[in-house]
User: Fold this.
Amino acid sequence: MSSIKVNNEKCVGCTLCVKVCPAQAIKMVDKKAVIDLDRCTLCGVCVSTCKFGAISILRQQAAKDKDLSHYKGVWVFAEQRNGVFSTVAFELLNKAQVLAKDLNTYVGAVLLGSGIKDKAQELISRGADKVFVIDSPVLQNFITENYKEAIIELVNKYKPEIILAGATTTGRSLVSRIAVDLYAGLTADCTGLDIDKEKKILIQTRPAFGGNIMAQIISPDYRPQMATVRHKVMPEAVVNPGREGEVIVNDFNPEWQDHRIKFLDFIAEAVSTVNLSDADIIVSGGRGLQAPENFKIIEELAASLGAAVGASRAAVDSGWMPYSHQVGQTGRTVCPKIYIACGISGQIQHLVGMQSSKTIIAINKDPDAPIFKVADYGLVGDVFKIIPLLTKKIQEIRNK
Amino acid sequence: MAMNILVCIKQVPDTTDVKIDPKTNTLIREGVQSIINPFDAYAIEEAVRLKERFGGKATVITMGPPQAQDALKEAISLGIDEAIHLSDRAFAGSDTWATSLILSAAIKKIGDFDLIICGKQASDGDTAQVGPGIAAHLDLAQATYVRRIDSVHLDTNPKVMIVERLLEEGYELIEIHLPALITVVKEINTPRMPSLKGKMRAQKAAITVWGNKDLGIEENKIGLKGSPTQVVKIFTPPHKEGGKVFTGEPGEVVDALVAEIKDIL
Assistant:
């Protein structure tokens, strides 16, 4: 069994490990850290935190003498709906090109759907060297079970070393199943991907605990190395129209279809035209707006910026906005380029859903509101006066 | 027409309690209360509602150290009938692959069920991988991000359910055969508070504890050893310093802001 040990020679009794242990499994006995192995979950937080290198986890390795060198290529799951790619697919293609260069291999894109074959060129122009296409009416709508079966077949046939997918509802549902079936490592919601050039493995960086801590994760002994990646943290691959690549078409085997699940209908949300996870800019409203009709000023500011509309939990629980707009711990996690929080005090549950945004602007009448602690720019004052002025100003700039 | 429902939950640290030590820039979890993962509260409530409607049994399962029993007791106080605690040193260090294997092994041991409900994701790890992982290990159909169960048909063969999945741009309707696994979002219900009767039942409830000798999983597929992923480093991101704050007349603060952000608009 794997285990964890404290080196008493190195432990200085600083108690930092006691403070950070999420399982509260560490106590100080005679000024040395002692770990209660029944409580310990081997999460490793203490190991990383200890400044003296006094704690170590002895990881017992499963016997792995598999040769992994025949796994080649960095693949991207090119998510699309009705022939329109999710922008995260282009963001992944950009990253995949960097990773593939470091590994001296090719960029592959997986394109599944119905009547989508001619979309392969678009992926090539965005950096794919090979596009693996399965075009079948069965794949018209996203059904996890059918998609995963098709991808597993492709993986077994072409053996990629890395697979990336967007951390979307589709991507997360899909690759979780694929990773289990393939006995592969999967890291969710990455914000950073790099290659360890010496070991030729993928280093995945992801926020945990609502962005309060970051973890670096590897999966050295398993292939493919899989990760879902957050929207908007990486730039899109540039379009190179003349770029050449290979299109590899496979058939959908009817046996792969799972008849236990059936798509019936898709109902698009009418309230807003820009969806939260796709948005470069999000304007969110909270309790400070006081009444549902006041969200109009949020919507107008959002419209002037081409932004999506978000809401705090307080606004959603009051019935002012639908749940699908909720940002925060029990809603969506977003990281747009600009996040504008209007009349939101900034409870920790809200902050964990948006604090990774690149630039945060907060408008609030209370100068002590916690939102100002994470804001790059804070405007203290009345939202009902400030927001319409800001909207007008932005319209002027944009019209120039 | 009874319905047997299993709910998989996780005990997590309460985010609202977590503080950052400004000197060491580390997350302080000492003295932080443990709670049921917020999304799992909706899973528990949905299971109890289905049970109340159709009859049957709602069982809650968690994997975790001994202290996770508190979460199971709380679930019972909310209307869950039985609780199973998967606890073994051999489970420590399991990533989502190994965790979903351990939970699915327990579910196989339970045997008879119509539906597994999980919260969409846990608030500490945020992976959303364990639910679909369990479905994969058990080869079940899955519906993730369910915001509403439209209908349940237990008199058909097979039994089916129609559910609404919340997606980025709207929602979709899915028909799914039972037994199946769903993960739920907050919109699905409003959880009840524990009743006094429930609290008393929870106090007295005997919780079944299973270790790996009960589940019999190959040792090299669980714990750190069986986990394909390894955490190499955990660090606290540089704490954001408060930025520029503008006070004054609305017109002034707007002008000051626009001057700053002009280039990124």
In short: Helices of chain B lie at 38-54, 69-77, 96-110, 130-138, 196-204, 212-215, 223-226, 250-261. The CA atoms of residues 22 and 239 of chain B lie 8 Å apart. DSSP finds eight helices and 15 strands in chain B.
